[in-house]
Design a protein that fits this description.
Layout lengths: L3 H14 L1 E2 L3 E2 L9 E2 H11 L4 H12 L11 E3 L10 H4 L6 E2 L8 H11 L3 H25 L25 H4 L14 H4 L8 H16 L4 H7 L4 E2 L1 H20 L7 H14 L4 E2 L4 E2 L2 E2 L4 E2 L9 H5 L4 H17 L26 H13 L3 H18 L4 E2 L6 E2 L5 H11 L2
Antiparallel strand pairs: 1-2, 3-4, 4-5, 6-9, 7-8, 9-10, 11-12
Helix pairs in contact: 1-17, 2-3, 2-5, 2-17, 3-6, 5-6, 5-11, 6-11, 11-12, 15-16, 16-17
The structure holds alpha-D-glucopyranose.
Length: 425
Amino acid sequence: MYSEENISSSAQKVLRDNTIDECYTVPTRLLYPFQWNWDSCFILLGWITFDEQRAWTEIETLLKGQCHTGKIPHILFHHASDTYFPGPDIWEYGSEIATSGITQPPVLATCIRLAYEFCKNKDLARQYIEKFIPQIIQYHRWYHTKRDPNNTGLIASFHPWETGRDNSVEWDDPLKRVPLEDLIPYERKDLEHIDPAYRPSKDDYDAYFALLKEFKKSNYDQEKLYKISSFKIADIGINSILYRANKDLIFLLETFDQFEDYLPEIKGYLDIQSQAFEKFYSNQTHLYHSIDLVDNKHLLDKTAASFLPLWAHSISQEKASLLKKEFDIWISKSSYLVPSLDLSSEKFSDEKYWRGPIWPILNFMIAKGFEQYGFANVEETIKKQSSELIKSCYFKEYYNPKTGEGIGGDKFSWTAAMWLYWVQN
Ligand code: GLC
């Protein structure tokens, strides 16, 4: 067990040690040696607690990779590295900065709002945020027009990596549709750094790689991909996160008033999402689930993402109480919170990546979601347990919900950031 004080200075050290070129933070050395989109947004929250200037440069660097269409890529390959697959030579995307050809959950506007509310130097924040806002607007516009071209209110993802929950069980069936015939041999790098028992399977990777090929064949043309992609799902995680981010973008537009003209556009997006949100609800499970957009059906696995509508604040108090009921059952089954998959699922694994292990960033969003609906005690419980996990196992990538053991990558930046911004307070 580490003391609070030691652990806080170690958390700062993790962020400093993972810094490259004094302007961005890698999730962890070796396993993930580049800049990741949603990692950097949560990492902003860590930096803001002790170095505000450095916090804003994290996002400034991320936004340098935005493409002309508005998309913010999931990875920015600022420097070459041979410890990661698939690298820039495989994606063949990006102009000035090589990037991947997909995106990640849009937590950006929300993390900027939270960092703004937390920071002391509001003038410094204002200088940066005023520059960021036009780019955030473009990013949200990209999501709403390219990933929901028919204004259904259901935002599509074309690759499991876009959801940030790479090998979650929900994607198992949709991935079976991905054609694997033309797959050329490739060499994974993740297995050189982490025990294969904790990582996605070969079948998963084959499908990930085949999808990437499908994108390249279509020249990353989003209109075309929306029509033909063999993997097209409306992830309850992304849809909740974007809903919340639209509200936080509205807050930013109202706070920095020269952007008022954009308010109707963003309010319009939020409106479309509000009208559609109950489509994610299933009367069978009394929970919110991702939707497979190819055959238009719910993916009924009970994953931790089913609690993210609380983070979005997009559902009624009555529905939130149903989620609380389900959560109480999860508490009774799991030694530690919050497992990424219901322990009763036959696909549950206490070690395998997004198929059971606990992720501190999800804990943060779920806890804050419950708090918004008046369940402050749940927030306290999740925070206390996150504290125990981090104090006993340090800043790991994820944690075993049965034993509390820390697994995956080491000295992990967003775990350190969650400690600094949320857990220690
Ligand atoms: C893994 C996670 C993803 C994260 C990345 C870097 O791929 O699934 O959510 O962004 O690692 O930490």
